[in-house]
Structures are given as structure tokens and as C-alpha cells.
Amino acid sequence: MSRDESRVTNYQSRSRGFSLPEILVVLAIIMLLATMLIPRTRGAKEAAEHAASVESMHAIRSTQEAYRITHGSYASSFRELTTTKGGPLLIGESQTGPGGTEDVLLYKGYIFRLRRPAPDQFTVTAEPIMNRANRDWLRMDQLGNITMSRGGFDVLKQGAGAGNN
Questions:
Q1: Are the CB atoms for 140 and 57 separated by under 8 Å?
Q2: pLDDT in tens, 54-71
Q3: How many CA atoms lie within 13 A of 4 on its CB side?
Q4: What angle is formed at CA 155 by the lines to CA 152 and CA 158, rounded to 5 degrees?
Q5: In this predicted model, what pLDDT tens digit does every residue of 94-106 receive, in sequence order?
Q6: Torsion (CA) 8, 13, 17, 19 in degrees, nearest 10
């Protein structure tokens, strides 16, 4: 075998594939990029859910106002406000207690609670379903004032001033 033939044979044996260190370097780069991108996409999803919940609260307020104009008082449940099938998931029945009536709705990553302490008042709270401790909890009154709080419903119960972060 001549010198040129050995070079061709050597080249052909090396060109069959990638070596193990080359594959490991490529995998390490892909994993590094994935670890940098996944938290950003999760944060974008949470931001989109937050924006959707704020818009849902404004829609609930508008619907409540239309209901009040038509019926003379605010609706005490989400069932009274919704007319289409296939919409948000309603959880349980409306409950009446010492603080008025309460109704629960599951929609776009948040649990909405409609409370009606008096015929001329209502509040809506939006609690995140996932990552509850690190996401905004929202509360809106019948005037459309929205307060935000991180950490939970107990902070919102203390009053409107305590929920402003």
C-alpha cells in the first residue's frame, strides 16, 4: 500500500461520524441554551395569564354593570352573568354566608371568586392556580379598582391598603 492510499483510507475511517467529545460539547451547548430559555417562556406564560386575568376582571365588571342596569342589582353568581356553553369552568354552587354570597370560576390560570356582600356591592378576587406564592393575586371592587398582592388571599382580606405592593 502506498503512502497516498493510506491517507485515503485514514481519511475515510475518520469521516464516518462525530467523536464522543464533539457530541458531548454539542449536547452541553443545547442544554445550556435550554436552561436559559425555559424560565423566560414560563415567565412569559405567567405574564400572559396575568394580563388575561386583568382583562377578565374588567369584562366581569362591565357585565356586572350591564346586569345591574337590567335587573336593578349586581349578579350574585357567575351563572347569572354567563349565557354561552363551553366557556369558563364554574366550580361548585354559589354559597351564602355571613359575608354575602360567593361564586367560584376557573379561567385561564386563575381562580376567580365573586363575592357580593350587599345588593349594591361586589368584589372579584383572582388567585393564581400554579406558583401561588410568587404570583400576583388580584382584587377588584364594583368601581373597577384593582389591587395586587403577592403571597395570598390573607393579605387581601386585611383591606385594600394592605394589598398594594
A1: yes
A2: 898 898 899 889 889 998
A3: 0
A4: 150
A5: 666 666 677 888 8
A6: -120
